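Retry 2 of 3 after timeout on previous attempt. Resubmitting structure tokens to design endpoint.
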């Protein structure tokens, strides 16, 4: 569970406790107000009763005043924590979870590596065994996305966008896994997969736009990985 998820849970718990105390002291204010209403507004003529009337009235008044302050304090705290929790929940629902973020970064790099490798295979720039081994590795990793689903903490639209992307990645990987040895020196097959990759990139773009993914940073990372090979 991420820090944000813990923050939302703790925030909700604290907000509920603060609301409970707000209600508790509000009821206390109503109780003190009722007690004050039950005391005659004019003091009795008897000096002893008059003194007692003043003491009781003052005690109830001060108690009510204190409870009113507590209602205000706990109400403000409840609003503060409730607002903060609501923002965290909104942020969580519209941003990638830690797991989804890792999956998206990895998929971006895998897809570009796969595209580059099948083009290498079509052009026969490396020996067949090496190319086939690399394609098999990349296809297997892409196929694993078939079992991935977006975090349930995301919005329904966000989950739909990401799940379509994951499913397309998985389908591409599974198809390629069955044709690993057929890419070598086979430009026609590679052209077919290039079309699939183009459509997949469109789904990727929608997911990236929805979650405001920094694609430039991913491009830089992909370039660094390419240069390091």
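Retry 2 succeeded. Sequence:
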């Amino acid at each position: 569970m991420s820090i944000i998820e813990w923050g939302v849970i703790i925030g909700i718990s604290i907000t509920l406790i603060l609301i409970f105390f707000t209600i508790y002291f509000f009821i206390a204010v109503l109780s003190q107000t009722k007690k004050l209403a039950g005391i005659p507004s004019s003091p009795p003529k008897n000096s002893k009763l008059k003194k007692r009337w003043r003491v009781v009235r003052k005690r109830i008044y001060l108690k009510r005043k204190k409870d009113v302050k507590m209602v205000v304090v706990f109400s403000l705290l409840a609003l503060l924590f409730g607002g903060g929790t609501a923002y965290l929940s909104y942020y969580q629902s519209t941003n990638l979870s830690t797991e989804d973020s890792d999956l998206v970064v990895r998929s971006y790099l895998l897809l570009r590596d796969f595209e580059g490798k099948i083009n290498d295979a079509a052009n026969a720039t490396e020996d067949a065994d090496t190319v086939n081994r690399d394609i098999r590795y990349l296809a297997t990793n892409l196929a694993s996305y078939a079992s991935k689903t977006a975090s349930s903490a995301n919005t329904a639209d966000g989950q739909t966008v990401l799940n379509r992307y994951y499913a397309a990645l998985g389908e591409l990987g599974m198809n390629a896994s069955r044709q690993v040895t057929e890419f070598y020196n086979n430009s026609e097959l590679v052209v077919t997969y290039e079309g699939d990759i183009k459509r997949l990139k469109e789904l990727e773009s929608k997911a990236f736009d929805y979650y405001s993914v920094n694609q430039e940073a991913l491009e830089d990372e992909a370039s660094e990985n390419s240069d390091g090979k």
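Attempt log closed. The first helix runs from residue 3 to 38.
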